[in-house]
Specification:
Helix content of chain B: under 10%
Radius of gyration of chain B: 13 Å
Distance between the termini of chain A: 41 Å
Largest sheet of chain B: 7 strands, mixed
Helix content of chain A: under 10%
Oligomer: heterodimer
Order of helices and strands of chain A: EEEEEEEEEEEE
Strand content of chain B: over 45%
Largest sheet of chain A: 6 strands, mixed
C-alpha cells in the first residue's frame, strides 16, 4: 500500500539550531514527494516538493532530497527561527493521480 | 498562490443535528476538491474526492450517507455531516486543484473544527 511515516513531535529547538524531521514512505509506483506546513489557525501550505529520485526541493531555507534507495524525504533547515514554529506534514502523490497520502504531522516549537 | 476558504472555521452542535461546511476556491476554478479529516496527532485522512457536477468518490470506510458531499460549481464544495454524534468531532480540511494543467499542488482551506456535544 501507500503510506507516509514521519517522526513524532513535538520537536523543540532553540533559535538558530539545526532541524531535521524524518520522513519515510512506501508507495506502489513512482511518487512525487511533498512537505506542507501548517501555521496556527491556517490551512496547509506547500513548502517544497520533489518529483523524482535525487531531486532536491528547497524553499525558505528548508530543503529535502528524494532518496529512492532509502525511501526517504527528510526535511532539514540549517538555522531555524521562531517564525518556523508550525506543524510540518510529509506527503506523497502518485503520478497520474491527485490523491495524496499524508504523514501524521510533526509539530515544531522554536524558542527564542 | 491560489486561495481556498472554508466556512465556518469552528462549529459546535448538539448530537443529532446536521452541520454543513463550505469550501470555496476564491481565485481559481477547481474541477476537483478533496475532503480530509484530521484526528488529534494523526495524519490527514482522505474522506472523499469531489468532482464538479458528479457524485463524490468516497474512500473505503467512509459512510457516504453520513458525510454528504456536494460539488455544485467549479468554486464550491460542501460537506454535510448528518445526524452528528460526538465521535464525528474532528478537524475537517478541504483542498482543491486547479483546472488548467496538473501542477501536482493542492491548495488547502484553513480547516473547520467540529465539536459535537
Amino acid at each position: 500500500g501507500n503510506s507516509v511515516t514521519q517522526m513524532e513531535g513535538p520537536v523543540t529547538l532553540s533559535e538558530e539550531a539545526f532541524l531535521t524531521i524524518n520522513c519515510t514512505y512506501t508507495a506502489t509506483g513512482y511518487p512525487s514527494l511533498f512537505w506542507y506546513v501548517q501555521y496556527p489557525g491556517e490551512g496547509l501550505q506547500l513548502l517544497l516538493k520533489a518529483t523524482k529520485a535525487d531531486d532536491k526541493g528547497s524553499n525558505k531555507g528548508f530543503e529535502a532530497t528524494y532518496r529512492k534507495e532509502t525511501t526517504s524525504f527528510h526535511l532539514e533547515k540549517g538555522s531555524v527561527q521562531v517564525s518556523d514554529s508550525a506543524v510540518y506534514f510529509c506527503a506523497l502523490r502518485l503520478d497520474n493521480f491527485n490523491k495524496f497520502y499524508f504523514g501524521s504531522g510533526t509539530k515544531l516549537n522554536v524558542k527564542p | 498562490g491560489a486561495v481556498v476558504s472554508q466556512h465556518p472555521s469552528r462549529v459546535i452542535c448538539k448530537s443529532g443535528t446536521s452541520v454543513k461546511i463550505e469550501c470555496r476556491s476564491l481565485d481559481f476554478q477547481a474541477t476537483t476538491m478533496f475532503w480530509y479529516r484530521q484526528f488529534p496527532k494523526q495524519s490527514l485522512m482522505l474522506m472523499a474526492t469531489s468532482n464538479e457536477g458528479s457524485k463524490a468518490t468516497y474512500e473505503q470506510g467512509v459512510e457516504k450517507d453520513k458525510f454528504l458531499i456536494n460539488h455544485a460549481s467549479l468554486t464550491l464544495s460542501t460537506l454535510t455531516v448528518t445526524s452528528a454524534h460526538p465521535e464525528d468531532s474532528s478537524f475537517y480540511i478541504c483542498s482543491a486543484t486547479q483546472v488548467q494543467g496538473r501542477t501536482g499542488e493542492l491548495f488547502f482551506g484553513e480547516g473547520s473544527r467540529l465539536t459535537v456535544l
